[in-house]
Amino acid sequence: MGEVVENPDSIHVDFTKYDIKRRIDIKQVFQNCLRSCILILNQDICMTKDVFIKLWKNNQICVCADGGANRLYEFFQDEDDRKTYLPTYIVGDMDSLRNEVREYYRGQNVLIIEQKCQYSNDFMKSIKVISDHFASPTVPKLLETNINHVVSGLKASNNNTSHDQGKNDIAPVKLVVLNAIYGRFDHTIQSVAELYRLQNQLPHFSTYYLTPKDLLFLLPAGGTSLTFTEGERDHLFGNCGLLPLAGPCTIVKTEGLKWDVANWRTGILEGQLSTSNRFVGDNGCYINSDCSIVVNIELKWEVVEKDAFFEK
Amino acid sequence: MGEVVENPDSIHVDFTKYDIKRRIDIKQVFQNCLRSCILILNQDICMTKDVFIKLWKNNQICVCADGGANRLYEFFQDEDDRKTYLPTYIVGDMDSLRNEVREYYRGQNVLIIEQKCQYSNDFMKSIKVISDHFASPTVPKLLETNINHVVSGLKASNNNTSHDQGKNDIAPVKLVVLNAIYGRFDHTIQSVAELYRLQNQLPHFSTYYLTPKDLLFLLPAGGTSLTFTEGERDHLFGNCGLLPLAGPCTIVKTEGLKWDVANWRTGILEGQLSTSNRFVGDNGCYINSDCSIVVNIELKWEVVEKDAFFEK
Question: Can you provide one Gene Ontology molecular function annotated for this UniProt record (chains A, B) (predicted)?
Answer without folding.
Answer: thiamine diphosphokinase activity
